[in-house]
Design a protein that fits this description.
Blueprint lengths: L3 E4 L5 H8 L2 E4 L13 H9 L5 E5 L12 H20 L4 E5 L9 H16 L7 E5 L6 H11 L4 E6 H5 L8 H8 L3 E6 L19 H11 L4 E4 L5 H13 L1
Length: 250
C-alpha cells in the first residue's frame, strides 16, 4: 500500500492522521518568511508536535525561482531552499517537495530547463545520499519540462512530485493527466492528490471535481506502485481519505 499523508494546510491534519493512522506532510513553511518571523517558535512548535507522523516536508515557494534571470533572485532562492533543508533535517526528515518555479510568458522553456539543471546540481552538492528532492509541477504546461530537468541533473536524489490538481486547473496544461503520469512515472517519488472543476486550483477532496480520480489512481498503482501520496486538501481531507479507503476495499 502507498504511504499516505495528510497535508497540514488542513487544520485537522494531526487529528485525521491519528484517526486513520496516516503520515503528515508539513506545510508550515511553504511561505519562507515564516522561518524568520518573531513567531517562528509557534510554527516550529506546531511542526515538532507532529514529528511522530511527519514523513514529507514542503519547502517554500513564494517569489522563489531556481531559473531566475536576476542572479540575486537565484541567490536568494538557493539561500531559502538551504534554510528550509536545514530546518527539515532538524526534524529528522529526508523527503522534501519544492516547486519547479516555471512562470509562463516570463521564462522560455529552454532557459527554464537549462538554468534549473544548473541550480539543482548546485543545491545537491552537499546533500547526503538519503535526501530525496521532489520537484513539483505548478505552472508547467508540459510534463517534459520537469522530466528534462531531472534527466539533466542525473542524480538519484532528484525526483518528481506530480500534483494532479495543478495539471487540471485553470488551463495550465492541455496535456491529459494520464500522459503526465506516464512521463513522470520513471522519476516519480511523491504525488499530491486533490481535485477541482478545472476553473481554479481549489484543492477539493479527490472525489469532488472533474478529474477522473479512479483512472488516475489505477494508473499510479500500475506505473508507480512505491510512491508516497499526500491528500492536499484545505478543509475536506477526511472525504478524500474515506474515498480512497472505500475504493481499496471494493
Amino acid at each position: 500500500m502507498h504511504q499516505l499523508c495528510v497535508a497540514t494546510i488542513d487544520s485537522r491534519a494531526w487529528e485525521l492522521a491519528e484517526k486513520y493512522d496516516l503520515g503528515i506532510e508539513l506545510d508550515q513553511f511553504c511561505t519562507a518568511m515564516y522561518m524568520d518571523m518573531p513567531d517562528f517558535p509557534k510554527y516550529d512548535a506546531d511542526a515538532r508536535r507532529m514529528l511522530g507522523r511527519a514523513k514529507v516536508f514542503h519547502g517554500p515557494f513564494s517569489e522563489l525561482s531556481p531559473c531566475a534571470i536576476d542572479p540575486r533572485v537565484r541567490k536568494l532562492s538557493m539561500e531559502r531552499y538551504n534554510q528550509a533543508y536545514n530546518l527539515m533535517r532538524s526534524y529528522g526528515l529526508s523527503k522534501m517537495v519544492l516547486h519547479g518555479g516555471y512562470i509562463p510568458l516570463v521564462y522560455f522553456p529552454q532557459w527554464y530547463v537549462e538554468r534549473s539543471i544548473e541550480f539543482w546540481k548546485e543545491f545537491l552538492i552537499d546533500k547526503p545520499e538519503d535526501f530525496i528532492l521532489c520537484l513539483e509541477n505548478v505552472m508547467e504546461s508540459q510534463p517534459s519540462f520537469l522530466v528534462d530537468i531531472v534527466r539533466g541533473v542525473n542524480d538519484r536524489r532528484c525526483r518528481l512530485c506530480l500534483d494532479i490538481g495543478h495539471v487540471h486547473a485553470g488551463g495550465v496544461s492541455n496535456v491529459p493527466i494520464p500522459e503526465w503520469i506516464e512521463a513522470f512515472a520513471p522519476y516519480l517519488a511523491h504525488v499530491h492528490l486533490h481535485n477541482n472543476d478545472s476553473s481554479w486550483d481549489w484543492h477539493k477532496s479527490i472525489g469532488n471535481g472533474t478529474i477522473d480520480i479512479d483512472r488516475v489512481l489505477d494508473m499510479l498503482d500500475r506505473l508507480a506502485p512505491d510512491v508516497s501520496y499526500t491528500f492536499e486538501n484545505i478543509d475536506d481531507t477526511e472525504e478524500s481519505i474515506q474515498y480512497y479507503l472505500y475504493r481499496k476495499r471494493k
